[in-house]
Amino acid sequence: MIGFLRGKLAIRQPPALVVDVNGVGYECEAPMSTFYNLPGTGAEVALHTHLVVRDDAHILYAFASEHERRVFRALLRVSGVGPRIALGVLSGITIDAFLLCVEAQDADPLVRIPGVGRKTAERMLIDLRDRIKDLVLQPGVAIVAALPEASAAQSEAYSALVALGYRPAEVVRMLKAVGAEGATTEDLIRRALQAAAS
Fold this sequence. Notes:
Elements (H helix, E strand, L loop, with lengths): L3 E10 L2 E6 L2 E6 L2 H4 L8 E10 L4 E6 L2 H11 L6 H10 L2 H10 L3 H4 L6 H12 L2 H4 L7 H4 L5 H12 L4 H11 L6 H13 L1
Parallel strand pairs: 3-5
Antiparallel strand pairs: 1-2, 1-4, 2-3, 4-5
Helix pairs in contact: 2-3, 9-10, 9-11, 10-11
């Protein structure tokens, strides 16, 4: 199993790329989330990889982060989801937004991804619901996708409310409802708790 590549980025033509590792070119397929983080051709690159062995081919998939690879592998465990659909998901939505969909059991954003139908999207949500904690990189990571202009105070309030036992999707709704302009972390937590109690 090839788990990691470090070398020069020789070719970059989405969804394919080639990494030159000491004169050997490793051809990989990668999601657009990885391509957005790649340096220019000829630059040094380090990628996490996942090898899929089929009867007719050995295909290497490359990822800019271990987090991307972990979500890709989780998607492969979903019935009816192969590497092509998993790559499409990672290319069509950020990981944070995807995890928020799983947490909220919201299939609508996933159905908008090319190649993902309603049944497949719902199967992903059901199969990954119990594994969401293993896929979240850190508490509060989903706030970035849900509140694109999130301040430091919002992020800290998000983490605190999740630590208090509120579900991430619920916390996002609470923080959106109370507004954040000029508020401290303590203000946001107090307002969110008051709103939840009313």
